[in-house]
Task: inverse folding
């Protein structure tokens, strides 16, 4: 049996009201969760507490250095060494990098300087005479062109 227009209109009103109530409740819950999350983010202030010490108590979101790394406290703790692996009280946020490779500088009999890198690369630096002249000019000890 087909529905008359008055019945259809009544059903539309009921369904619209139910959908609106459901959406309002869903959005209110979402709004509350969002506000709580924003409050949590706003409350987070990272504080650097220098080098980790066993006797020191630390609070969540404090940062320390320990064994070449920078560590973030995930919760309040005392005596809990960063990186101990037993209790996730700390998270490593910066890890110590590898040491740089400095070249060895060599001078040959003609006064030519070369940089010899650990990976085997060699770069010509220049002559000792020219480097000294450049330094003297740079510091105003001699005018340019009088080398």
Result:
């Amino acid at each position: 049996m087909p529905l008359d227009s008055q019945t259809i209109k009544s059903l539309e009103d009921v369904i619209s009201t139910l959908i609106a109530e459901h959406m309002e409740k869903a959005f209110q819950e979402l709004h509350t969760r969002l506000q709580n999350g924003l409050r949590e983010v706003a409350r987070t202030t990272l504080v650097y507490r220098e080098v980790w010490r066993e006797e020191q108590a630390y609070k969540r979101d404090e940062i320390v250095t320990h064994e070449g790394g920078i560590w973030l406290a995930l919760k309040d703790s005392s005596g809990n060494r960063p990186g101990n692996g037993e209790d996730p009280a700390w998270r490593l946020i910066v890890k110590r990098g590898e040491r740089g490779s400095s070249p060895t500088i060599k001078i040959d009999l003609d006064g030519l300087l070369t940089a010899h890198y650990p990976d085997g690369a060699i770069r010509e630096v220049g002559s000792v005479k020219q480097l000294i002249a450049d330094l003297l000019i740079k510091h105003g000890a001699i005018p340019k062109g009088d080398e």
